Amino acid sequence: MTKRSVKIAPSILSADFSNMAAGVKRAEAAGADMIHCDVMDGVFVPNLTFGFKMIEDIKKSTRLPLDVHLMIVEPERYVERFVKAGADIVTFHIEACKSVPETLAAIKAAGARRGLVINPHTPVDGILPYLKDCDMVLVMSVMPGFGGQKFMPHVLDKVRTLKKIAVEKNYTFDIEIDGGITIENASEVKAAGVNVIVAGNTLFAAKDMKAAVEGLR
Hints:
Elements: E1 7-10, H1 20-29, E2 35-40, H2 52-60, E3 66-71, H3 79-85, E4 89-93, H4 100-110, E5 113-118, E6 136-140, H5 156-169, E7 174-178, H6 186-192, E8 196-199, H7 201-204, H8 209-216
Parallel strand pairs: 1-8, 2-3, 3-4, 4-5, 5-6, 6-7, 7-8
């Protein structure tokens, strides 16, 4: 995969679930860098999506890394199984986790990249002790659980803080953003320090997904 300064991760939450392989292949052909998979348990967030079997089947349909976002309680119980199913990156919510160090260690031991997620109203302070062990930090720019929500611009202050910390401490984690990202607000998001953009409706509803990917990038 060609190294790019900004990576695009189409969210398959917006794809056609009856033909997920086609949606994944469409995203790959459009120039996506990874596939973003939202796993929801109906407990931490008020929605249900899919689990291990879907990750396994998506993995068979693409060469791209799978960026698996766990919106579930007690993620430490399941990370090993998600990595075995095909997750290349596993991100989990600090708000839903009993032990952040234990969960980060479990992801690393399973062979995947490690990431933390913070909701729009969760302060960055809560994850500061763990940043040195993160490969990615995902900043939610909508409340997790459903696609199609409006972008919350105040979260960009968190992105700027994370970028500043990364530069000062020479950390190399990616800064990812998810929720309400469009071609119109992508420039502002990137300027704040984001280098991985998750987009659902903006990409899957586009007539020309390749043009949409390039527009975001």
